[in-house]
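This part of the workshop introduces the protein records we will be handling. Getting from the letters to the C-alpha cells is the skill we practise here. An example says more than a description, so a record of this kind follows:
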Amino acid sequence: MKVEIAQASIDHIPAIVPKVRHADAVELWDFARVTPAEAMYHSLNRSGFARTGFVDDEAVCMFGLSTLSVAADTGRVWMVGTYLLDRYANTFLRRCMKEVEEMLVSYRRIENFVDVRNVRAIEWLKWLGFTLEEPQRLGPYNMEFIPFYKERKNG
C-alpha cells in the first residue's frame, strides 16, 4: 500500500466528490449550505496550506488551513474525507499528526467546528489532540456543532 500526502489541487476534487463520506456532506450542508465540491473549491482558494491524501494513487481526502485571524494568529483547519478513509484510518491518523504539527508552525492556534453527529471526525480530532468545547447551535438550520481547537505547545 502506497500512502502519499501531496499538495492539493482543484484537479483532485472530481476524484473525491463521488466518494465523500455522508457525514461530511451533511455537515457541510448543515453548517454553510454548500456541497462538498463547493466547500473544497472555496477552501482550497483560501488556503495557503492544502493537501490531498492518496492511497495507491486514489484520492481519499483533502484538508488544509486558511487564515481566520491574522491579529489573533489563528487558522481555520478543514477536511473533506471519503468513505475510503475508514479503510485506511490508522495509516492516515499517524500521517495527519505530522500535518497538524506543520499547521501549528504557521499559526499559534487552529480551530473550526464539527457536527455533533460526525462521530468519525470527532474521534479523529480527539486522537490528534484537539480540545473540543460545548456544542453550539449554528448554520442555516440551527444545528449543533462542536467548536474545536489546538494550540502550539510553545506559545
Remarks:
- Residues 3-151 form a domain with the Aminopeptidase fold (CATH 3.40.630.30).
- The radius of gyration is 15 Å.
